[in-house]
Amino acid sequence: MTFQTLDDLDDGQQVLVRFDLNSPVEDGEVQDNRRFGRHATTLSELIDRDFAVAVMAHQGRPGDDDFLSLSQHAEILSDHVDHDVDFVADTFGDEALDAIDDLAGGDVLVLENTRMADGELPEEEPEVKAETEFVQTLAPEFDAYVNDAYSAAHRSHASLVGFPLVMDAYAGRVMETEYEANTAIAEKEFDGQVTMAMGGTKATDVIGVIDHIGDKIDDFLLGGIAGQLFLRAEGYPIGYDVGDMDLYTSQWEENHEIIEEILEERGDQITVATDVAYAEDGERVEADVEDVEEKGLGVMDVGTDTAEHYADVVRDSDAVFVKGALGVFEDEKFSTGTVSVLRAIAETDCFSVVGGGDTSRAITMYGMSEDSFDHVSIAGGAYIRALTGDELAGVEALKR
User: Fold this and answer.
1) Which residues contact 250 (CB under 8 A, 6 or more apart)?
2) Which residues contact 300 (CB under 8 A, 6 or more apart)?
3) What is the pLDDT of residue 188?
4) With 116 labelled, which of 67, 105, 294, 295 sits at a CA distance of 20 to 30 A?
5) What was the pLDDT predicted at 187?
6) Which helix or strand (DSSP H or E) is residue 211 part of?
7) How many CA atoms lie within 13 A of 399 on its CB side?
């Protein structure tokens, strides 16, 4: 391990912990999600080990509708750990400092949204963030800093990169497990085939991953927007905008040259759909890509034959990584590709990591258990950064 973890931290101290509790908001109500459950594992351990805990986290961005106080987050977190979790509507002012002074072993306090605090934003070098009043005021109040917010670790904000420069810093359990799983492609050795299923709406992400870890992967199974653009590059009339949308054109203009280079250099590693699914009169309709004649077909999923082939590839693999959905799985009619791959992974004794924001939602949405996978990442942007080889500011600060 390249940084200190909770195993290196003596019990019973006063610790400042950074979680990522950023959550969907509906009608002003913060929605419970897997991030609370994951961070609750770290928090429960800290409580059991008699730490006095102050929690930092963020919600939304200034100016957005979901930019809210963390009062609701404290209540949700309390439910997850079955323990009192207090809240103070202040981050590093007198009210927050008084509440921190009152902490005893086993107590938990959630501080106000870090993005409401002067000095948290914008992204700047760690050395700059370490000198902010935010960091300089809070750091002396604690014995140690714990960063558990892997999913926010690509941000160079004060609460993520400033504190490790001025105090003892450790990785929480979420940070530790996410880092190990998401660097496994580069660092772990596998005996058999290594497969990656990739989709989603951002072709640039897919291309960046292929470019960075192409030497580590035997077969890329493509779907989503990127899969359609690769089909377009092979000469099929697929991956074109319908009506006034601009989902494909701008991404094609930005990426078509590198897509063509990848197909030329790594064509034997790239697997694209042989059939696709689209909506007609509200129903799922499928067509072989060889039979598609009209540009602008609104493809919603890979076809059944493709889904079955992808599932067979997964079953023959020693390790499988998933980034992004192969289709619009939120609509059950177009979930075939995504769900077929996930179910094949769940039924197979392979090492598996599933990530890419919403993709992990398909696991519980379609009756699967997260226990059937080695790791289900709660990270979006940080997961992509790890796969494309970009440094994560929060992780680098812990290593320092």
Assistant:
1) none
2) 277, 278, 279, 284, 327, 328, 331, 333, 334
3) 84
4) 105
5) 80
6) helix 203-213
7) 10
For 30, the enclosing helix (H) or strand (E) is strand 29-30
Q: Are strands 351-355 and 319-323 parallel, antiparallel or unpaired?
A: parallel
Blockwise average pLDDT, block size 10, the chain, 400 residues: 93 98 96 95 98 98 97 98 98 98 98 98 98 98 98 96 98 96 86 96 92 94 97 97 90 96 97 97 96 92 98 98 95 98 97 84 93 92 85 95
Intrachain domains 6-179+394-399 and 184-368 with the same fold: yes
CATH dotted code for 184-368: 3.40.50.1260
pTM of the model: 0.89
Instruction: Give the whole-angstrom CA distance, residue 305 versus residue 287.
Output: 10
Domain ranges for the chain: 6-179+394-399, 184-368
Q: Which residues contact 291 (CB under 8 A, 6 or more apart)?
A: none
pLDDT at 125: 98
Q: What is the DSSP secondary-structure string of 163-193?
A: GGGTS-EEE-HHHHHHHHHHTHHHH---SS-
**Residue bearing tokens 């790594």:** 266
d(Cα 262, Cα 269) in Å, to the nearest integer? Answer: 9
Tell me which fold the domain 6-179+394-399 belongs to: Rossmann fold (3.40.50)
